[in-house]
């Protein structure tokens, strides 16, 4: 098998890469990173000292960082979907990818990581700031997102691969709510996409690990 993907089915950034792999029907071997597969964790750490996933290995070559992995797939394993279009549309895709990673995922993760700490190490001020920043991102997206169906219109791109996991989990941390109908409708469309629905389903068994308690609604 040419491609190996190290990751975990409950990991948001792993979803970001599973979604394009599944959407383009690109064959790959999944290398589960968990205590039951210590060899996978050890190889991940050997190849990428930060120890974070997803990590792609393509015929022995290590490709790290979800956005860069998707760029690599676009260049070397093309399929029906083009993940980063040329020109102005591509620049918009890259902007939205940054917004979803840095302004949605990062703030969602800050709240989750804080909840995973022992009680005496938690920081309510950091949590409050992260939630405020999430709300600012939601408001920007609700105003600025294209009418759809996808982040930049008709084409399902890198921006949607980043949006699906970040909005899925962020809504569990801080509800998008009815005041942002355009963003809420976009999240619902994403969850109905077959590759995203598969990611949601394959992550279902791990929901008890969500430290804030997973809501029933998805
Ligand atoms: N910027 C990285 C972020 C990857 C990341 O934060 N992965 C999380 C899982 S969703 C992880 O590996 N967490 C375990 C750790 O940080 O040790 C990317 O885009 O791939």
Describe what this molecule looks like in 3D.
The chain is α+β, with helices and mostly antiparallel strands and 218 residues long. The protein has 2 domains: 3-76, Glutaredoxin; 87-209, Up-down Bundle (Glutathione S-transferase Yfyf (Class Pi), Chain A, domain 2). It has 8 helices and 4 strands; from the N terminus they run βαβαββαααααα. It has helices at residues 12-23, 38-47, 66-76, 87-116, 124-144, 158-173, 181-192, 194-203; strands spanning 3-7, 29-32, 55-58, 61-64. α1 runs parallel beside α3, α1 runs antiparallel to α6 and α1 packs across α8 (194-203). The longest helix is centred in the middle third of the chain and has 30 residues, at 87-116. The protein is globular and about 45 Å long. The model has no long low-confidence stretch (mean pLDDT 97). Bound molecules: glutathione (GSH). Residues 1-81 form the GST N-terminal domain.
């Amino acid at each position: 098998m040419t491609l190996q993907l190290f990751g975990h089915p409950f990991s948001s950034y792993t979803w970001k890469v599973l979604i394009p792999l599944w959407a383009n029907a690109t064959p790959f071997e999944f290398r589960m990173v968990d205590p039951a597969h210590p060899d996978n964790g050890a190889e991940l750490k050997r190849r990428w000292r930060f120890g974070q996933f997803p990590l792609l290995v393509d015929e022995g070559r290590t490709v790290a960082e979800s956005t860069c992995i998707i760029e690599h797939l676009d260049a070397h394993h093309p399929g029906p979907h083009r993940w980063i279009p040329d020109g102005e549309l591509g620049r918009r895709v890259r902007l939205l990818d940054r917004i979803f990673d840095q302004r949605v995922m990062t703030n969602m993760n800050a709240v989750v990581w804080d909840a995973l700490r022992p009680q005496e190490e938690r920081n309510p001020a950091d949590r409050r700031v992260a939630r405020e920043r999430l709300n600012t991102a939601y408001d920007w997206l609700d105003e600025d997102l294209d009418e759809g169906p996808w982040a930049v219109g008709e084409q399902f791109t890198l921006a949607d691969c980043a949006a699906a996991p970040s909005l899925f989990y962020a809504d569990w941390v801080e509800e998008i709510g009815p005041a942002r109908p355009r963003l809420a409708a976009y999240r619902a469309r994403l969850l109905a996409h077959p590759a995203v629905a598969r990611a949601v389903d394959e992550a279902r068994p791990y929901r008890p690990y969500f430290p804030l308690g997973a809501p029933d609604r998805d």
